[in-house]
From TrEMBL:
This is Glutathione S-transferase. Pfam families: GST_C_3 (PF14497), GST_N (PF02798). Residues 84-212 form the GST C-terminal domain. Residues 2-82 form the GST N-terminal domain. It comes from Porites lobata. It comes from the Eukaryota.
Length: 212
């Protein structure tokens, strides 16, 4: 299948899990990276349904926005969405749990008061992230003792969301396992497992190097 177009800035950011989903789903697409001045023109056209990126245009010309929605849509097209309704809800829960963490990091990033920024970082990495990782590891262990993916033997969008968060925000797009995971051996192996999915590994190796 081909003919999809993904519009986003020339960075990993919120668009990267969509790119990872396209790769994992083996769906061809055009990776359109718009600099700020070009984005303003596209935004002014009214084409993006919510006035923001990322958004995709399907081969039929339909337009869809919101990174999580796009990722799930592509994964469903590529057979990477759980068939069982409760498993799908669990994948949503895990993905939403990661989004909670992303929103907190974004808040820290935009904090202008350096003293407060350091306090927020200390709180996030000291008291917020570790307990959440314990919960994620427990969810992973619930399926085959953590030897596979979050929903079993098959990769899903929950795994892509989790991997992208740690790869983009903490490993800075490199293949290294982030230090934040080192106390959680099952999550370390999960990170490696997702990275070693051939299509994902190929994309990580060849994608443009960006700061974030």
């Amino acid at each position: 299948m081909s003919g999809y177009k993904l519009f986003y800035f020339p960075v990993r950011g919120a668009g990267e899990k969509c790119r990872l989903a396209f790769a994992a789903a083996k769906i061809d697409y055009e990776d359109i990276r718009l600099p700020a001045e070009e984005w303003l023109k596209v935004k002014a056209s009214g084409r993006p349904p919510l006035g923001q990126m990322p958004f995709i245009v399907t081969p039929e010309g339909k337009i869809l926005a919101q990174s999580g929605t796009i990722m799930k849509y592509i994964c469903k097209k590529g057979g990477l969405c759980p068939a069982d309704s409760f498993d799908e809800a669990t994948a949503d829960m895990i993905s939403d749990g990661v989004v909670d963490l992303i929103q907190q990091l974004i808040k820290i990033y935009y904090e202008k008061d350096e003293t407060k920024k350091e306090e927020l970082k200390k709180e996030f990495y000291g008291t917020t992230l570790p307990p959440r990782l314990e919960k994620f590891e427990a969810l992973l262990k619930n399926r085959d003792e953590g030897k596979g993916f979050f929903l079993g033997e098959k990769l899903s969008y929950a795994d892509i969301t989790f991997f992208d968060f740690f790869n983009s925000f903490h490993a800075k797009g490199k293949e290294d396992v982030p230090g934040e995971l080192e106390k959680f051996p099952l999550l370390v192996e999960h990170y490696k497992r997702v990275l070693n999915v051939p299509e994902i590994n190929e994309w990580v190796k060849k994608r443009p190097v960006t700061e974030f």
